[in-house]
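Lay summary. Proteins are chains of building blocks that fold into shapes, and those shapes determine what they do. In this project we predict the shape from the chain. Here is one chain we studied, written as its sequence of building blocks.
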Amino acid sequence: MNGRDFGWTLAVVVAALTLTSVSVRAVDEPDDLKLLAGTWLPKEAILGDNKIDQMVLDKAQVVYEGDKYTIKIGDKEEKGTFLLDPKKLPKTMDIFPTSGDNNGKTLLAVYELAGDKLTICYSLTPTVRPENFEPDSNTLLVVKYERMKP
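And here is the predicted shape, written in a compact code that computers can read:
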């Protein structure tokens, strides 16, 4: 094998290894959009220093399908779309309601997804994203959800 052939062979091997490692990395990284799919029930919610009444939580649920969501609280309903960025720390969620009381607004949030448990900290201030999961002001709502079992 001459020098030029060795160079091409090395380039092909490096390219193949790079593609393989990229594919393995993509498979290893969880797809939060798929993991989020389903119905979630709020188990605890805190707005600033105020705990949300359990009777309200018992009437609520969130359903995620693809990049769409539906929130139901009693007979009220809100629908919209959302965008996840699982590469940021903490992971971020941009929420775009298309119906309901928040129609036309953009809500910024951070989330943590661990199996059948989901925690989201929503900012009620449209231009401010929460930095963590502490409801340190009455403009931050932290909700802890559990996936509804079939």
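What the prediction tells us: The CA atoms of residues 82 and 95 lie 4 Å apart.
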